[in-house]
Amino acid sequence: MPGSADSVRTAARPRRGFGLRGPRMARQVLSVEHVDALALPVGDDGVVAGVDVQDRPAVLGLHHPVPYDVVLVGGLWTAQVLALRAAGTGARVAVETGRPQVWTGLARAAGGDQQCMTLHEVGRVPPMGATAVSPVVVIRDCGMKPPRGRVSSGPWQSVLTLLPYLSPVAPRLLRGASLAGIQQVSPEEAQQVGRILSLTRQEVEALSTLADGVTLWCAGRERQFVLTRPTDAELGLLGAARRLD
């Protein structure tokens, strides 16, 4: 019966997982004409990888509360730019590499008085203690066949594996990656990447003609060509964009 005590108790009963009903307020509606004016700021959880085909900033979200693996089939230059920019967001960057000589200068420049970028031998990355307020990005620069190391992605700790070219381990790594970046590869490698990532014919054909500094980033069904433009500081430290080391 409407207005009975039972119905009042039912209405006041908390909704499971949502709590009590709050005050009724008018809906906030944005008209279609004003949608283009809506802009969201870039927070500290993303790295500006460059610009898209419309010259808009392309941001890679690297900090997540769940494991997040990134594979970059490309050059050392792009990996180092991403490492430097990740450090600029406040993340701690750990580089696992068998060629520390190419990373030492960058680590010194990135850290300044603070050790925000550290270098480690292959298989020797210690537990980093990543948290939401202190995220970690691990860069694995371990050659064509990176060994299965002790380091792995986890909450607030992403792992970026750099592969200079496709190798026998590349299909497994690409299929398991949350985000994959492909720079210029041979036509044969482009065909293989296309099958692994389900690329369109146009995307496959473009992979063998990409300019230095251009990467096709793939996340699920999303695809985006991104041009990484170095800042003056990056240009002085790393030089111009290049695909080959």
Helix and strand layout, with pairings?
Elements: H1 5-12, E1 46-51, E2 57-61, E3 68-73, H2 76-88, E4 92-97, H3 104-111, E5 117-120, E6 136-141, E7 157-163, H4 170-176, E8 179-182, H5 187-197, H6 201-207, E9 214-219, E10 222-227, H7 232-238
Parallel strand pairs: 3-7, 3-8, 4-5, 4-6, 6-7
Antiparallel strand pairs: 1-2, 8-9, 9-10
Helix pairs in contact: 2-3, 5-6
Report the biggest beta sheet as strand number plus sense, adding barrel if it closes. Answer: 8 strands, mixed
Could you report the average pLDDT, rounded to the nearest whole number?
A: 85
> What's the helix-strand series?
HEEEHEHEEEHEHHEEH
What's the end-to-end separation, in Å?
A: 79 Å
- Total beta strands: 10
| Strand residues, percent | 15-25%
Q: Portion of residues in helices?
A: 10-25%
Rg calc: 23 Å
Helical/strand content category:
alpha/beta
Residue stretches low in confidence (pLDDT < 50, at least 5 long) are 1-30, 32-44
